[in-house]
Amino acid sequence: MRLTIVDSKEAGIKEVKTPELYAKGELKEKLNIIYRIYDEEWIEWLQKVFWHLWRSSISAEKRINEMEKIKVV
Predict the structure, then answer these.
(1) What is the C-alpha to C-alpha distance for residues 64 and 66, in angstroms, rounded to an integer?
(2) Quick check: 12 and 36 in contact, CB under 8 A?
(3) In sequence order, which ranges of 1-73 are alpha helices (DSSP H)?
(4) pLDDT of 23-46, one tens digit each?
(5) Could you tell me the residue ranges of all domains in the chain?
(6) How many angstroms separate the CA atoms of 1 and 52, rounded?
(7) What are phi and psi of 47, to 5 degrees?
(8) What is the 3-state secondary structure (H, E, C) of 49-63?
(9) Average pLDDT taken over every residue of the chain
(10) Which one, 3, 53, 59, 73, has the greatest CB density within 10 A?
(11) Hey, which residues does 33 pair with through a beta bridge?
(12) Average pLDDT, stretch 1-20?
């Protein structure tokens, strides 16, 4: 799922379903489902979740340094 918060009045969630995740024949092709949210309380909650995750994430510099340590075979 991917979430896009447009502003404090609208958000969109995209969910992608692929046939590999379902029983054979249950889903014939890839399916994109888009949800639109207009409830300001839900959007406020989603914004809080985003900022909580953002603040607790590692810095880009540290992530790059760790990735450079990985040796590609």
Answers:
(1) 5
(2) yes
(3) 40-55, 60-69
(4) 988 999 999 999 999 999 999 999
(5) 2-69
(6) 18
(7) -65, -40
(8) HHHHHHHCCCCHHHH
(9) 92
(10) 3
(11) 15
(12) 92
Phi, psi of 51 (to 5 degrees): -65, -35
Burial degree of 11 (CB within 10 A; 0-12, 13-18, 19+): buried
Residue 13 Ramachandran class (φ > 0 left, ψ -120 to 50 alpha, else beta): beta
> Which residue, chain included where needed, has tokens 């249950």?
26
Rounded to the nearest 5°, which phi and psi values hold at 25?
85, -10
Which of 56, 41, 55 shows the shortest CA–CA distance to 9? Answer: 41
Q: What would the two tokens of residue 20 be?
A: 């590999």
73 SS3 class: coil
Distance CA 39, CA 44 (A): 9
